[in-house]
Amino acid sequence: MKTTKSVSQAFSSTGSLAKAITGFNPRQAQLDMSLEVEQVIADKATLLVEAGTGTGKTFAYLVPAFLSEQKTIVSTGTKTLQEQLFHKDLPLVKKALSSQLKIALLKGRSNYLCTYRLEENFSSQPQKRRQAGVQLDAATLADLVKVRQWSSHTKSGDLGELTDVADDSAIFAQVTSTTDNCLGRQCPDYESCYLVKARERAIEADVLVVNHHLFFADLALKDTGFGELIPTAQTIIFDEAHQIPDIATEYFGQSFSTRQLLDLASDCLQQYRVELTDVKQLGKAAEKLQRSAADFRLLFGQNPERGDWRQRLRMTTFSQGFSHVVDDLKFLYEVLKLCISRTEGIDNCFERATQLLNLCDLMQQLDKPGTSLWYETTRRHITLHLTPLSVADKFSEVISKSDSAWIFTSATLAVDSQFEHFSKQLGLNNARNMLLDSPFDYQQQSLLLVPRYLPEAHANNRAQALVDIAMPLIEASKGRCFMLFTSYRMLNQVAEILAEMIENPLLVQGQMAKRVLLDHFIEQPDSVLLATASFWEGVDVRGDSLTCVIIDKLPFASPDDPLLQARSQDVKRQGKDPFAKIQLPQAVIALKQGVGRLIRDIDDQGVMAICDPRLVNRHYGQVFLNSLPDMQRTRELHRAVTFLEAITAKKKREIE
Amino acid sequence: MTIQAIFYLMGHASEQDLLHFVCEQATIAFRQNKRVFIYTEDQDCAHQLDELLWSLDAQSFVPHNLPGEAGHQGSPVEISWLPPTSSRQVLINLATEVPDFALQFSQIIDFVSEQEELKQLARQRYRRYQQKGFHVETRPASRVA
């Protein structure tokens, strides 16, 4: 059935959207974007759209996508946003346009129940259970009961349905698969596999909702059975597209972690104990690898850190430590080789050992040009990363080969009204672009405060100075405040002082999982949340819950970041200024994101306090001001306090 | 080289108008890549100017600082009621008396008001500049209402 409906018709005041959605107000910016998306789909072109908060960009891209009746993939930043799109926006547009298109939602592997692993780890018949069964604490055991009950009736196998189990429950790792331990077509449960079914639905769907990680896993063939989605789509739409360069970089790179080694070793041990009890060497080799992997982690400091792996590799301690790991992995590989085809599990272990050995080779390349080789430690593990400095070539090749329309949209793509920073990173040189202002009145709705006379970043009294600024703001806004820090050190210092000084509940990052922290923040309106600057990416706190955001410093990436260092050197070699080319645009985008969290609605009001005088006294302050929404500005703390008091008073009146 | 001192005739301009005019002058000098020192009578006046400059359109942004805010070197425009800590070309004087450090600058901008008391003070400053051997001239502040 060929449709005669048009985009303009859909958005008109008497059109399909207005008829189907109560309170729908047509907006010119939204229609402009929608018409442009329609054209780009028709031309199979590439489009970058910055649509300020409140433009209504979701409908603006969904309407032409539905009307085109072609296969469309919509990729967004988080699972939450995926669910919102799939359960709310898509059905609405579909209904409004009376569309017959099939829609589907596909999440990453770790979101689907693996019935094989559930049975393997926690079989209801104990004799079937692996002898080295997983030990669970009481809370996790309770979660297991819930998973089991739900597993008997779920249709999708999507663990997101289990709303009464905490996101970070340890049970999830035990009942889902990873690319490493998935048996693929050899799995006895393959026919009923939820992931396989979800992927089949995804391939059949006309409009498919995925997330960026999944999209790039598929693109970079980082998961088995993948590489099937993207070639089938005629239109690809990235929402929250500002995240794409980082995610693409991650997926076009390689990584190798001691976690993978330990997982492999423990799976080998289980195979040895249950199935191959005769192969004593297998147990020994696996245990040896466990030891050398743990020793390797211990070569680094206890606290999590990042650094240049090539530098470390030139030091004997580290190169020896790594050699031990490689030797023990080789030994395990040789033992596994002798056991091939004895069990599915062993074959899987052998494949993983092979891949890990290949990765070990990559991680020892001392001078591969155009890449950064860096490490990152957590309390227990270390991960080595081989990251390309630029994905522009690879990504633009994907686009030019695709014969599809590509649309990148976000509230934060442009820096100083230019798309160069974004398009350069992805090699999108011939993309069309469009910049749509937010319909919000930022002059009325928001105030940007840069307080006076702040001590220097490393001064001893800085934490106290931040508290002195925060206290009157917190009091005036009655909590409802985020304090965001560029370092854990300052975060903890301020948290400690603040706890003594104010009555408001303090929620500190690290106390509990991010989602739980945010739930508490919304439940306790007078609370103050202290977190690091990266925390707010993907955070959505609507309306009254958040009226004040305090930032300790402009969010420039730490110059110690190994990837940033490598990129900076690269830019320097090209005779350009790494600060202007990399750090500044990154920080601008991060701050724009922050303002977007504060003002989400036409009725929202709030204060953003940036405790960094560089915004006022450096030339680049102008780049920030040109890129941020046009907020009222002040340097007077008392003006910000008055502004917040007025908001609080207004809210009080509304309630009474 | 002779130091240039320019007196702008402010007529009956209000104090707010004067401060706006000062911002304009600071902006002009900043755009000419000159380092500017705005000397005020007191902290309160410095804060008012700071607030005004910070509230300009993003397009007209002028990087500036109050004393101690931007390290020893300061930013292109420093606003202070204390003596300068780094070398600068342009002094915009809002104080009632000529500061001793005026000699450090190559250009001085000052203001004459029609209000009698202020006019007397401006005359005294005019004479001080002349005594110090500066080249002094007056100009109408044409853009002030």
UniProtKB/TrEMBL annotation, chain A:
Its cofactor is [4Fe-4S] cluster. Residues 16-286 form the Helicase ATP-binding domain. It catalyses: ATP + H2O = ADP + phosphate + H(+). PROSITE patterns: HELICASE_ATP_BIND_2 (PS51193). This is ATP-dependent DNA helicase YoaA. It comes from Thalassotalea litorea. Gene3D superfamilies: P-loop containing nucleotide triphosphate hydrolases (3.40.50.300). GO terms for molecular function: 5'-3' DNA helicase activity; ATP binding; DNA binding; hydrolase activity, acting on acid anhydrides, in phosphorus-containing anhydrides; iron-sulfur cluster binding; metal ion binding.
Automatic annotation (TrEMBL), chain B:
InterPro entries: DNA_pol3_chi (IPR007459), PolIII_chi_sf (IPR036768). GO terms for molecular function: DNA binding; DNA-directed DNA polymerase activity. It comes from the Bacteria. GO terms for biological process: DNA replication; positive regulation of DNA-templated DNA replication initiation. This is DNA polymerase III subunit chi. It comes from Thalassotalea litorea.
